[in-house]
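FORM 12-B: Structure-to-Sequence Request
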C-alpha cells in the first residue's frame, strides 16, 4: 500500500468521544519510549506526523490520523511508564482499556516491543496476556532493530517467544522494524492492506 495522504484528525479523551463513523482502524501501542511516534512517522513517511519526544510519556489522548482518506490510524498512550504517578498510570490504563476493549472499528492493535530489551519486559508480557484474556486482536512489532546485530535481533525475538509461549499456544503475527532503516515498513503496510480488503467498510 502506498500512503498518499496522512492527516491528523483530532485527539480524544476516551472511546465514547471518538468518531462514530465505521472506518477500519489500526491502533499502535507500546511502552513509553518504545519508538511509537518514530514508527508512525516512518510508516506514513511524514517527518513529524506523530511527535517524537525527548520526554517520554507525552501522549495522554487517543490521537486519530486519517490515512489515504480511508482508514484510521490511532496512536494510543504508552503503558507501564514508571516515572508517572500511580494515579496517572491508572488513568492511562483506564483510557487504554476503554479504547481497546470497546472499539468495534479497531481491526488490530499493533503492540510495539523494543527489540533491544532482552530479557523481555514483564510489563509487555503482562499487557499481552491482558489483551488475550479480553480477546483483543493484536500483532507485534519489534522496534529499534538497527541497534542490534542480526543475531541479537533473533536472540531477542527468541527470548520473547519463549516467554510468550509459557501462556500462549502460538506466537502472534509479528514484524521486525527499524524507523531508521525503514525495515518492516512494506510488510506492515501490506498486512494492513490485506485486512482492509477482507473487511467490509
Ligand atoms: N536506533 C533507533 N532509535 C529509535 C528508533 N525508533 C525510535 N528511536 C529513538 O527512541 C526514542 C523514543 O522514540 P519515540 O518515537 O519518541 O518513542 P515513543 O514510543 O513515541 O515515546 P513516547 O511517546 O515519548 O512515550 C527517540 O530518541 C528515538 O529517536 C529506531 O528504529 N532505531
Ligand atoms: Mg510518542
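FORM 12-B RESPONSE
SEQUENCE OUT:
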Amino acid at each position: 500500500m502506498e500512503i498518499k495522504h496522512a492527516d491528523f484528525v483530532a485527539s480524544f479523551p476516551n472511546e465514547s468521544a471518538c468518531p462514530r463513523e465505521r472506518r477500519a482502524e489500526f491502533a499502535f501501542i507500546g511502552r513509553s519510549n518504545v519508538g511509537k511516534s518514530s514508527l508512525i512517522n516512518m510508516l506514513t513517511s511524514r517527518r513529524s506526523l506523530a511527535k517524537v519526544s525527548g520526554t517520554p510519556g507525552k501522549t495522554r489522548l487517543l490521537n486519530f490520523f486519517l490515512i489515504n482518506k480511508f482508514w484510521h490510524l490511532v496512536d494510543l498512550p504508552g503503558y507501564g511508564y514508571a516515572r508517572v504517578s500511580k494515579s496517572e498510570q491508572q488513568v492511562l490504563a483506564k483510557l487504554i482499556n476503554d479504547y481497546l476493549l470497546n472499539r468495534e472499528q479497531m481491526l488490530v492493535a499493533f503492540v510495539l516491543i523494543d527489540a533491544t530489551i532482552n530479557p523481555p519486559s514483564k510489563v509487555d508480557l503482562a499487557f499481552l496476556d491482558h489483551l488475550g484474556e479480553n480477546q483483543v486482536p493484536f500483532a507485534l512489532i519489534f522496534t529499534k532493530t538497527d541497534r542490534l546485530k542480526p543475531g541479537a535481533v533473533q536472540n531477542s525475538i527468541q527470548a520473547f517467544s519463549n516467554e510468550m509461549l509459557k501462556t500462549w499456544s502460538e506466537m502472534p503475527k509479528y514484524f521486525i522494524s527499524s524507523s531508521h532503516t525503514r525495515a518492516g515498513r512494506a510488510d506492515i503496510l501490506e498486512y494492513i492492506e490485506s485486512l482492509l480488503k477482507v473487511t467490509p467498510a
